[in-house]
Amino acid sequence: MRGLVAGLLAFAVYFIVQVAVFHSIKVTRRATVLVTIWIAGLAVYAGLYAALPDDSALWPAPFVAASDGLTFTCGVLLYFFLFMGYAQFIYMAESSVGARTMIELSVNPEKGLTLEELTGRYRHDWMLGRRLARMVQAGYLIEENGWYRTTGRGRLVAGVLAHCKRVLCLGPGG
Amino acid sequence: MLKGLFLASGGLLIFLVAHVALFRWFMPERRFVAMVRLAAAIGVGMIAFHRMIPSDLGFLPASSTGAGWGVDLLNGTLVYGFLFIGYCMFYFLVDRGFSGRIMIEIEQSPERRLRRQDIVARYSMEAVLRRRLGEMLEIGRIVVKEGRFCNTAKGQSAAAMFAFVKRFLQLGEGG
């Protein structure tokens, strides 16, 4: 339990720091900042793990594990998984078409919006432009005189995604 | 605690094989619901199996079998749960990823390059919005009243939560 408790507490510290940073500074390179804070949090995890007592001092026998490398690693795994889940939530809040749509609809909850009114507020060209700019910045696409082509990295990702879509019979999707 | 980790990894492998088989042969209509049910069934089986088999699994060294069954099971279940959540992220990226679809369209074009208007012609943004609206109707986040889309109470709460997160973390209007 020592590793799991330390992992949980380290994530709580990570969460507070990340929220404070994002709230006080307008972060542009979000992924870099999220990962940097997470890496710094590994030191917090190690400190918390060292500060916690052995399981036998706190927990009943079924929940006691030796304070060894495996227990330490399991705590790191928990800290990593919680971070991954949280990062996914942040990206969903930031990029999700569904979330943005519900926010637009919430402006006038009784009256709602027609599809035309919705696309007037949440424009298709803006949606696409934002994605293209982000993919160019992240090194998946190259833009030359208005033409977009994939980089080696983009080609690899496109290949993997297309293969998975085929294997799972998902259709073109998107 | 290795027993729980082995079971969690094995559980995920069984899930992946069963998931591919299910999607290829049965093509469930509510795909994500089918995935969650399958993962839950395997998870329950994994927990039962954990209580039935020896802690060394017949091959683990004695040094890795000293943990109590409770912490081993808790750890294994957490790992299995998070691996499933991680796979769901990947699944949604494959199925719905906007950027992924754009890259696939570019790669599959004859010249392997497209202009903005070519992308729009192959991948309609209106179709993206219609698909999301359809999904939100299905899960009860929105309703259609006299041709207008409105949030349900559930949709309104989700909208308020997302709007707060975007505002508080300065994420911009996004979408």
Write up this protein.
The complex is a heterodimer of chains A (174) and B (175). Chain A is mostly helical and 174 residues long. Chain A has two domains: 2-95, no CATH class; 138-174, no CATH class. Helix content of chain A is 68%, strand content 5%. Chain A has helices at 2-24, 30-51, 69-95, 97-106, 115-121, 124-137, 152-167; strands at residues 141-144, 147-150. A two-stranded antiparallel ribbon of chain A has the order 1-2. Chain B has 175 residues and is mainly alpha-helical. Chain B folds into three domains: 2-96, no CATH class; 98-139, no CATH class; 143-175. Helix content of chain B is 70%, strand content 6%. Chain B has helices spanning 2-25, 31-52, 69-96, 98-108, 116-122, 125-138, 153-168, and strands spanning 114-115, 142-145, 148-151. A two-stranded antiparallel ribbon of chain B has the order 2-3. In chain B, a hairpin with a 2-residue loop joins β2 and β3 (148-151). Chain B is elongated. Chain B starts with a helix and ends in a 7-residue tail after the last helix. The model of chain B has no long low-confidence stretch (mean pLDDT 89). Chains A and B meet through α1, α3, α4, α5 and α6 of A and α1, α3, α4, β1 and α5 of B. β2 (147-150) of chain A pairs antiparallel with β1 (114-115) of chain B, so a sheet runs across the interface.
